[in-house]
Design goal:
With about 130 residues, this protein is mostly helical. The chain has 3 helices and 3 strands; from the N terminus they run H-E-E-H-E-H. The protein has a 3-stranded antiparallel sheet. It is elongated, with a radius of gyration of 21 Å.
Length: about 130
């Protein structure tokens, strides 16, 4: 365990002499877009997530308007607009899926806005037995 703390301390010590610390956002090459699109999309930069807003999914589903009209949804942009306009899933059991898809779309929007930071909150983080609580 002490070895782990020494390694973490050594990693963060390299930036101690720097006048400004820049923490760049980074993204894994492994992502979960395969559940939405025919092919897995490489998302290695924040700007890559912008394209997902209008990219057509590999499936579509219907949402019902408050007046009883049905419309197909196949992109994040359309899904967000329809839900804002009061559309819901035809079946109650499918509403959770629509909500989950909307949440994923919102997450992609937030990730597209990530930028570098000059503030780290790691110094305030305590890794002890209270963490799981």
């Amino acid at each position: 365990m002490n070895y782990l703390y020494v390694c973490i301390l050594a990693i963060f010590s390299f930036n101690c002499g720097a006048t400004s610390l820049v923490i760049k956002s980074s993204f894994s090459n492994k992502n979960g877009t395969y559940a939405f699109f025919d092919e897995q999309i490489s998302l290695t930069q924040a700007k890559d997530f912008l394209s997902l807003e209008t990219k057509i999914w590999s499936y579509e589903f219907d949402l019902e308007s408050p007046s009883g009209e049905f419309e197909k949804v196949e992109t994040c942009k359309v899904l967000t607009k329809k839900i804002e306009d009061g559309y819901q899933a035809f079946r109650y059991s499918e509403q959770k899926v629509a909500n989950a898809r909307r949440l994923t779309c919102e997450m992609w929007r937030v990730m597209s806005k990530l930028t570098s930071s000059d503030i780290s909150y790691v110094s305030g983080f305590e890794h002890d037995l209270n963490l799981p609580k």
